[in-house]
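User: Hi! I have a protein structure encoded as tokens and I'd like to know what sequence might fold into it. I'm fairly new to this, so please keep things simple.
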């Protein structure tokens, strides 16, 4: 419930396909003239936090919030194992950069700090209303879903000169240790944990191409940044505690309400807007997106892995209580 409370004062509710079209067009109308770049993400349940798979699994195993240093250490252990297995080398690409290693791990379901995004708002909307099944029945279809629009202008590493080398780096370009005595290292850490970054990888995989996909990443949010306190206002007064922020998001996003009438004057870089899609509107939106854009599982997940996951939804995907001898 607290996750929903965190986003509640900023969200705009979408009750129909017409509302969806209006809000997406308004984002581009408002910010297109300023050459803003947005990353989009859809989640089928509005109560879910915006967490990376690594953060989520560590949270489940520990049962409490944790900081970037712990995240960094666990990430290092995973990358070490990747090397031990020899998976840091590709027969076609040679040695993989750290980001490419993480992208491959993410693709096959291993925990990483990367968060899947798309640069196409309509695909993100499809993910928000995507049909998912358990035991042949739709899951979460009656629940409200959530759509995020994240300003990554100046933080898309492919298109930012000083960040572009990250794509090919064999070491992690971010530093998760705040205790290093070097002032530059500490500044790097503080920036890493108060900003978000995005990466549009090369289309080494057909699914990324089909989804116009990419990744969002950054350090675990902290309460002190390079220029002083780093806070998240809480209505009607006060600020969210850092553990409450981390419960809602594992990256340092700056939520703002998108008001089409007032605009978003003065909103700084790294803003995120969130739209709550009413459960009752999901089926109609889904049908419209399929008819107008052709979005469905076979086009969004055009590979054998996708077929295994979604190709036969009418067949039970859990074992019966009684097993055969």
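Assistant: Happy to help. Inverse folding works backwards from shape to sequence: for each of the 325 positions I chose a residue that suits the local structure. Here it is:
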């Amino acid at each position: 419930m607290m996750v929903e409370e965190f986003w509640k004062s900023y969200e705009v509710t979408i009750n129909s396909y017409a509302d969806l079209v209006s809000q997406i067009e308004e984002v581009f109308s408002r910010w297109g003239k300023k050459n803003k770049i947005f990353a989009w993400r859809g989640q089928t349940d509005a109560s879910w936090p915006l967490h990376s798979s690594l953060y989520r699994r560590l949270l489940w195993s520990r049962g409490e919030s944790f900081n970037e240093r712990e995240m960094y250490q666990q990430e290092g252990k995973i990358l070490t194992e990747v090397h031990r297995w020899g998976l840091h080398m590709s027969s076609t690409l040679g040695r993989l950069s750290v980001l490419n290693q993480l992208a491959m791990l993410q693709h096959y379901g291993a925990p990483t700090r990367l968060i899947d995004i798309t640069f196409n708002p309509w695909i993100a909307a499809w993910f928000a209303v995507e049909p998912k099944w358990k035991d042949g029945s739709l899951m979460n279809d009656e629940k409200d879903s959530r759509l995020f629009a994240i300003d990554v202008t100046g933080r898309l590493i492919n298109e930012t000169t000083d960040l572009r080398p990250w794509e090919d780096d064999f070491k992690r370009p971010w530093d998760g240790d705040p205790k290093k005595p070097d002032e530059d290292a500490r500044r790097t850490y503080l920036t890493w944990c108060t900003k978000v970054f995005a990466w549009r990888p090369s289309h080494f995989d057909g699914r990324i191409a089909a989804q116009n996909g990419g990744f969002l990443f950054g350090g675990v949010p902290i309460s002190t940044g390079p220029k002083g306190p780093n806070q998240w206002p809480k209505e009607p007064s006060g600020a969210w505690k850092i553990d409450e922020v981390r419960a809602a998001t594992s990256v340092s996003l700056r939520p703002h309400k998108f008001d089409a009438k007032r605009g978003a004057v003065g909103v700084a870089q790294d803003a995120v807007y969130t739209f709550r899609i009413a459960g009752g509107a999901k089926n109609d939106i889904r049908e419209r997106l399929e008819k107008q854009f052709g979005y469905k599982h076979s086009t969004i997940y055009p590979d054998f892995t996708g077929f295994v996951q979604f190709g036969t939804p009418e067949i039970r995907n859990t074992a019966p209580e009684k097993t055969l001898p």
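A useful reference point when you look it over: The chain has a mean pLDDT of 88. Feel free to ask if any position seems puzzling.
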